[in-house]
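FIELD: query
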Amino acid sequence: MAKKMGGGSDVSAVSVLTLERAASCDSHNLIPITFSRHALILAMARSLLLALLVLVALLQVALTAPAGLKRIFNREFDGTLQVKQGGSAVVVGRDKNDFGVWAIRPQKEGAHLYNPRTGNYLGVNGDKVVVTADRRQTWSLESAGPGVYKIKLPNEDLVLDVDGDSKEAVLRRSNGSVEQLWQFVSSVDYSRMYRQC
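FIELD: result
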Protein backbone atom coordinates (compact mmCIF):
# COMPACT_ATOMS: atom_id res chain seq x y z
CA MET A 1 0.00 0.00 0.00
CA ALA A 2 1.39 3.38 -0.96
CA LYS A 3 1.91 5.81 1.87
CA LYS A 4 1.18 9.50 1.27
CA MET A 5 3.72 12.10 2.35
CA GLY A 6 2.82 15.56 3.64
CA GLY A 7 2.66 17.11 0.14
CA GLY A 8 0.45 14.33 -1.24
CA SER A 9 3.24 12.54 -3.15
CA ASP A 10 3.30 8.77 -3.37
CA VAL A 11 6.21 7.24 -1.36
CA SER A 12 6.37 4.18 -3.65
CA ALA A 13 7.35 6.49 -6.55
CA VAL A 14 10.15 8.16 -4.59
CA SER A 15 13.49 6.77 -3.43
CA VAL A 16 14.85 8.38 -0.29
CA LEU A 17 18.61 8.68 0.14
CA THR A 18 20.27 10.02 3.24
CA LEU A 19 23.64 11.68 3.41
CA GLU A 20 25.57 12.18 6.60
CA ARG A 21 27.19 15.45 7.36
CA ALA A 22 30.93 14.89 7.13
CA ALA A 23 31.80 16.15 10.61
CA SER A 24 29.15 14.27 12.60
CA CYS A 25 28.00 10.70 13.19
CA ASP A 26 24.99 11.87 15.20
CA SER A 27 21.71 10.48 13.79
CA HIS A 28 20.07 13.90 14.23
CA ASN A 29 22.37 15.31 11.54
CA LEU A 30 21.12 13.14 8.65
CA ILE A 31 19.85 15.08 5.66
CA PRO A 32 17.13 13.34 3.61
CA ILE A 33 17.42 13.94 -0.13
CA THR A 34 14.79 12.60 -2.48
CA PHE A 35 15.22 11.65 -6.13
CA SER A 36 12.51 10.24 -8.32
CA ARG A 37 13.24 6.86 -9.86
CA HIS A 38 12.93 8.48 -13.26
CA ALA A 39 15.70 10.99 -12.45
CA LEU A 40 17.97 8.22 -11.14
CA ILE A 41 17.42 6.06 -14.23
CA LEU A 42 18.02 9.06 -16.49
CA ALA A 43 21.29 9.92 -14.70
CA MET A 44 22.48 6.30 -14.93
CA ALA A 45 21.57 6.16 -18.64
CA ARG A 46 23.53 9.36 -19.33
CA SER A 47 26.58 7.97 -17.52
CA LEU A 48 26.36 4.70 -19.45
CA LEU A 49 25.98 6.54 -22.76
CA LEU A 50 29.03 8.69 -22.03
CA ALA A 51 31.09 5.61 -21.15
CA LEU A 52 30.00 3.89 -24.40
CA LEU A 53 30.90 6.96 -26.48
CA VAL A 54 34.38 7.05 -24.95
CA LEU A 55 34.81 3.32 -25.63
CA VAL A 56 33.70 3.69 -29.26
CA ALA A 57 36.11 6.61 -29.77
CA LEU A 58 39.01 4.57 -28.35
CA LEU A 59 38.12 1.56 -30.52
CA GLN A 60 37.90 3.77 -33.59
CA VAL A 61 41.42 5.10 -32.99
CA ALA A 62 42.73 1.57 -32.40
CA LEU A 63 41.07 0.21 -35.55
CA THR A 64 42.12 3.07 -37.84
CA ALA A 65 45.79 2.96 -36.91
CA PRO A 66 47.26 -0.06 -38.75
CA ALA A 67 50.05 -0.75 -36.24
CA GLY A 68 52.77 -3.34 -36.88
CA LEU A 69 55.09 -4.22 -39.78
CA LYS A 70 53.46 -3.34 -43.10
CA ARG A 71 54.13 -2.51 -46.70
CA ILE A 72 52.52 0.78 -47.70
CA PHE A 73 50.96 0.14 -51.10
CA ASN A 74 49.86 2.69 -53.71
CA ARG A 75 47.49 0.99 -56.16
CA GLU A 76 47.67 3.80 -58.74
CA PHE A 77 51.44 3.36 -59.14
CA ASP A 78 51.29 -0.40 -58.46
CA GLY A 79 54.05 -0.38 -55.87
CA THR A 80 55.02 0.20 -52.28
CA LEU A 81 56.69 3.03 -50.42
CA GLN A 82 60.41 2.17 -50.31
CA VAL A 83 63.67 3.74 -49.25
CA LYS A 84 65.92 4.19 -52.28
CA GLN A 85 69.00 2.06 -51.55
CA GLY A 86 72.04 4.12 -50.63
CA GLY A 87 70.08 7.34 -50.15
CA SER A 88 67.44 9.16 -48.20
CA ALA A 89 64.84 9.46 -50.97
CA VAL A 90 61.60 7.54 -50.72
CA VAL A 91 60.13 6.09 -53.90
CA VAL A 92 57.27 3.87 -54.98
CA GLY A 93 58.54 0.60 -56.45
CA ARG A 94 57.81 -3.10 -56.86
CA ASP A 95 60.89 -4.50 -55.11
CA LYS A 96 60.03 -7.01 -52.39
CA ASN A 97 63.08 -6.28 -50.26
CA ASP A 98 63.25 -5.02 -46.67
CA PHE A 99 63.57 -1.39 -47.81
CA GLY A 100 59.79 -1.45 -48.37
CA VAL A 101 58.78 -2.72 -44.91
CA TRP A 102 57.61 -0.12 -42.38
CA ALA A 103 56.85 -0.33 -38.68
CA ILE A 104 53.75 1.71 -37.90
CA ARG A 105 54.23 3.11 -34.40
CA PRO A 106 51.06 4.80 -33.08
CA GLN A 107 51.57 8.12 -31.28
CA LYS A 108 49.21 10.48 -29.49
CA GLU A 109 48.59 12.63 -32.58
CA GLY A 110 49.08 9.97 -35.29
CA ALA A 111 51.94 7.58 -36.04
CA HIS A 112 55.66 7.40 -36.75
CA LEU A 113 56.58 5.39 -39.85
CA TYR A 114 59.87 3.60 -39.16
CA ASN A 115 61.94 1.63 -41.66
CA PRO A 116 63.71 -1.15 -39.70
CA ARG A 117 66.11 -1.90 -42.60
CA THR A 118 67.63 1.59 -42.52
CA GLY A 119 66.86 2.47 -38.89
CA ASN A 120 65.29 5.73 -40.09
CA TYR A 121 61.90 7.42 -39.93
CA LEU A 122 59.76 8.76 -42.75
CA GLY A 123 60.22 12.52 -42.65
CA VAL A 124 59.96 15.70 -44.68
CA ASN A 125 62.56 17.96 -46.30
CA GLY A 126 60.74 20.81 -48.06
CA ASP A 127 58.17 19.09 -50.29
CA LYS A 128 60.27 15.91 -50.53
CA VAL A 129 59.56 12.88 -48.40
CA VAL A 130 62.79 11.39 -47.05
CA VAL A 131 64.04 9.07 -44.35
CA THR A 132 65.86 10.61 -41.44
CA ALA A 133 67.34 9.41 -38.17
CA ASP A 134 67.31 12.75 -36.39
CA ARG A 135 63.70 13.92 -36.72
CA ARG A 136 60.67 11.75 -36.07
CA GLN A 137 57.83 13.15 -38.14
CA THR A 138 54.35 12.33 -36.86
CA TRP A 139 51.93 11.38 -39.63
CA SER A 140 48.16 11.36 -39.47
CA LEU A 141 46.60 8.24 -41.01
CA GLU A 142 43.18 9.41 -42.18
CA SER A 143 40.68 6.81 -43.36
CA ALA A 144 39.54 7.44 -46.95
CA GLY A 145 37.35 4.35 -47.33
CA PRO A 146 37.53 0.66 -46.43
CA GLY A 147 41.22 -0.22 -45.96
CA VAL A 148 42.44 2.94 -47.72
CA TYR A 149 44.19 5.89 -46.06
CA LYS A 150 45.56 9.35 -46.69
CA ILE A 151 48.96 9.79 -45.03
CA LYS A 152 49.10 13.45 -44.07
CA LEU A 153 50.80 15.98 -41.88
CA PRO A 154 48.66 16.55 -38.78
CA ASN A 155 46.57 19.74 -38.84
CA GLU A 156 47.63 20.52 -42.43
CA ASP A 157 46.20 19.82 -45.86
CA LEU A 158 49.45 18.22 -47.10
CA VAL A 159 49.36 14.52 -47.95
CA LEU A 160 51.76 11.87 -49.19
CA ASP A 161 51.65 11.75 -53.00
CA VAL A 162 53.82 10.33 -55.78
CA ASP A 163 55.64 12.31 -58.48
CA GLY A 164 54.57 10.64 -61.73
CA ASP A 165 57.95 10.96 -63.48
CA SER A 166 60.49 10.13 -60.77
CA LYS A 167 58.15 7.94 -58.66
CA GLU A 168 59.49 9.81 -55.62
CA ALA A 169 57.23 10.38 -52.66
CA VAL A 170 56.33 14.05 -52.27
CA LEU A 171 53.98 16.22 -50.23
CA ARG A 172 51.09 17.87 -52.05
CA ARG A 173 47.81 19.51 -51.16
CA SER A 174 45.03 16.99 -50.73
CA ASN A 175 42.97 16.87 -53.94
CA GLY A 176 41.11 13.57 -53.54
CA SER A 177 43.05 11.81 -56.32
CA VAL A 178 43.78 8.08 -56.16
CA GLU A 179 47.53 8.80 -56.23
CA GLN A 180 47.13 10.07 -52.66
CA LEU A 181 45.50 6.88 -51.33
CA TRP A 182 47.49 4.18 -49.57
CA GLN A 183 46.87 0.68 -48.24
CA PHE A 184 48.73 -0.93 -45.35
CA VAL A 185 49.28 -4.61 -46.20
CA SER A 186 51.25 -7.38 -44.53
CA SER A 187 54.12 -8.95 -46.45
CA VAL A 188 52.08 -12.14 -46.97
CA ASP A 189 49.11 -10.23 -48.45
CA TYR A 190 51.49 -8.16 -50.59
CA SER A 191 53.02 -11.31 -52.14
CA ARG A 192 49.53 -12.65 -52.92
CA MET A 193 48.63 -9.39 -54.70
CA TYR A 194 51.55 -9.80 -57.11
CA ARG A 195 50.82 -13.48 -57.78
CA GLN A 196 47.37 -12.42 -59.01
CA CYS A 197 48.81 -9.92 -61.53
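FIELD: remark
The two ends are 79 Å apart (CA to CA).
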